[in-house]
Design goal:
The chain is an alpha/beta fold and about 290 residues long. It folds into two domains: about 120 residues, Methionine synthase domain (Methyltransferase, Methionine Synthase (B12-binding Domains), Chain A, domain 1, Orthogonal Bundle); about 120 residues, Cobalamin-binding domain (Rossmann fold), CATH 3.40.50. It is about 60% helix and about 10% strand. The protein has 14 helices and seven strands. A hairpin with a 5-residue loop joins strand 1 and strand 2. Helix 3 packs across helix 5 and helix 9 packs parallel to helix 10. It is globular.
Length: about 290
């Protein structure tokens, strides 16, 4: 059984912790446990309840009304939501619940259904990355088992790869990009997604993957002469120095733009070398690459 904090619930649902505490005092649907030091904790069942309740509340149902509903009524109301954003939220919540319960068949079915109706690119943008951002908070805090994250990440990885393999680009931009993650970084999903987007836009991709030493990257750059390089850095192993990495990369690749996105790039505040370009989001990466075409 997982034990979640009230902050976990806030991150997963978007409902402020203060509001959740008020709901606990006034209504009956949440009954958190308490640790020996009197700190609230929530079970898998509590998480499922708050996910469903927050979804209905966000799309027009009053909490006092939801409080009087049975579990079956809540589930039926959720299925009746027709707003596009509500449908997307429902799928994300279903993925979270399936991951917590280790129900991999349900997880994969939910993804396949959305891919079948909306396509792989929209599924990645609207479902997969919002989902990964939410569970990333839990994973970094140690509130889900790494095995849970690895299992669902592998399913997502397979979907992106299948989508990428099936692409037939309409244009050939006559440009190439080298995609990699530095040593100590293994979170590859964003990189795979960018491979999909670049290929879909007619850019030839040289894909090195995760945990690549700078010396190996330099060898490929010398042989293939890409027009740009790209990396998405979320978290790395102990001992990785982001500032040192930037300094070494700028010296080795002083003629090739290197675009970096991810959590570390978002929090870095020092001046950047000329050919190192930070972008805060994946759409910003696409916008920048479009200027190189």
């Amino acid at each position: 059984m997982n034990a979640f904090t009230i902050k976990d619930l806030e991150n997963l649902t978007g409902i402020k912790a203060h509001t959740i505490r008020i709901w606990e005092q006034r209504y009956h649907f949440l009954k958190p446990g308490r640790t020996q030091t009197n700190i609230r904790y929530y079970t898998n069942d509590e998480l499922k309840k708050i996910l469903n309740i927050s979804l209905l509340n966000k799309f027009g149902y009053k909490i006092s009304h939801i409080d009087r509903m049975s579990e079956e009524e809540i589930n039926n109301k959720i299925l009746q939501l027709s707003n596009l954003q509500a449908l997307q939220e429902r799928v994300i919540h279903e993925l979270i619940q399936a991951m917590i319960e280790m129900d991999l068949e349900r997880f994969e079915d939910a993804l396949d259904n959305h891919i079948g109706s909306r396509g792989i690119e929209k599924t990645i943008q609207q479902i997969i990355f919002p989902f990964m951002e939410r569970i990333g908070v839990l994973w970094m805090a140690g509130h889900i088992n790494p095995a849970q994250e690895h299992l669902v990440s592998n399913i997502v990885r397979q979907k992106i790869l299948v989508g990428t393999d099936s692409l037939v680009p309409v244009l050939d931009q006559n440009k190439s990009g080298l995609l990699f993650l530095p040593e100590g970084e293994y979170h590859e999903l964003a990189l795979l997604y960018m491979q999909f987007l670049f290929k879909n836009r007619g850019i030839r991709v040289i894909y090195l993957g995760a945990n690549i030493p700078l010396e190996d990257i330099a060898f490929v750059v010398k042989m293939k002469a890409p027009d740009f390089m790209y990396s998405h850095i979320t978290s790395t192993a102990n001992g990785f120095g982001f500032e040192r990495f930037i300094s070494q990369a700028s010296k080795k690749f002083d003629q090739t733009p290197m675009i970096i996105s991810g959590r570390l790039a978002m929090t870095y505040e020092k001046r950047l070398p000329e050919k190192i370009i930070f972008r805060k989001s994946l759409p910003e990466v696409i916008e920048y690459v479009a200027t190189l075409l």
